[in-house]
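Why do we care about 3D structure at all? Because function follows from shape, and shape follows, mostly, from sequence. That is the central idea of this module. The next example makes it concrete: a single protein chain, its amino acid sequence, and then its structure expressed as tokens.
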Amino acid sequence: MSQQHNPPAAPVLSENEVIRQKKEKVQALRSAGRHPYANTFRPDTQVVAFRAACEAMPKEELERPGKEVRYALAGRVMALRLMGKLAFGRIKDGSGAVQFVVSKEYLGDKFDPFKKFVDIGDIIGLVGEPFVTRTGEVSILAHEVTLLTKNIQPLPEKFHGLTDKEIRYRRRYLDLIMNDEVRETFLKRVRIINFIRDRMNRAGFLEVETPMMHPLVSGAAARPFITHHNTLDMQLYLRIAPECYLKRLLVGGMERVYEINRNFRNEGISIKHNPEFTMMEFYWAYATYEDLMSFTEDLVSALATEVCGSAKIMYQGREIDLGAPWERLTIEESLVKYGVATADEAKSREGLLAAALRNGMDKDHVGPMSYYKLLVTLFEEKVEEHLWNPTFITRYPTELSPLARRNDKTPEWVDRFELYIAGREIANAFSEQNDPEAQYEAFARQVEEKKKGNDEAVDMDTDYIRALEYGMPPAGGEGIGIDRLVMLLTDAPSIRDVILFPLLRPE
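And the structure:
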């Protein structure tokens, strides 16, 4: 097939003019009795399989047109170049992209309608043979072309692509069309969740579903989203966490349970926070928080190796070693290690207050805080960002952990850890409180906190207390932030990069 010289460049049209012309083509197709959004074509092969078939063919066979073998591909036209009686384009489906060649020789009287009506952005079906051009490009030589979906909105210009972050988040569909690396991020997210689910199932955990609308605020310290059920005339809260429902299942004899689902917290938006996010929570009868540390090390290390090829990964230009074992520090030890407080200061409220003021914290903000609140605040504001490699932080105050089991020897502390990687919390876990009296007292303290204006305090859950009175086995429970884990394993700087449709202000 001979190639002709390129025609003169077409005049540059405004976006509004391009849209107008495409809408005119839609009307012309309808007037001619042709459906611009047809559902009459069934592909039998994806691009990745087509390419594999081409690679298996001898080169001399590929170069010869007129083969009897035929493939049916469907996808979006990403590039199109018209050259007299020939057209070269690029079609992209969910597996990849490949060049297609259309010629009047093979298409006959359907070639001119192809030139007239098919544009970049359209979705088409092709039936054709494997072929390689003189430049060595693997292609499909079309014998039939079917217009399946007429594109109206022009795609971004080829060489500059879609780079505006705001547009990418708002029009994720367009982001996925134009940016292959974005598609790969979300495919990897699917692999991550599937791996975790398979690992949990093989460890004997049962995947369950619990309510997304709660009559009470429970499960974590956060402001809730409030809604209303008309028929029952009752106020409901979108769930902050599924914890109390999952532990009810432990009472019922389901000894290992987990749930991967959405939580909702009415809080600020940042590169680490989205009001709607995905968590995995799991509960394990007869386990302690120390058992969960080992389980989490093994899970995340194996996940990184599966998805990234190694337990050592690069995140934002720095290496992270996810291989076990991971460092374990109490909150006090972390303050001392990172120079926030001395060992003596970490033991008293006065010492922590002096350390807070020395580290530039506002006196009016930290002055009224208790020893335990000061300890955690200093850690969150001055230490957290330095925890780059995986670190378990342990020994949390009882007054800030209403659902955790008190340590038997030092009841002012609970058996709890938080996992930090790359300067952010990835998981939170503890040995569960199963003493109904102790749990009632913890809820009562939360109620008092709410009366004082703490809008993140949880409610008194009398049914949960009743469930504990039936007897819940000793257990460990953990929540893992799936979005933050995906960020880590896809080298994404913002949580918005790993959520398909993050919450944004209205346009």
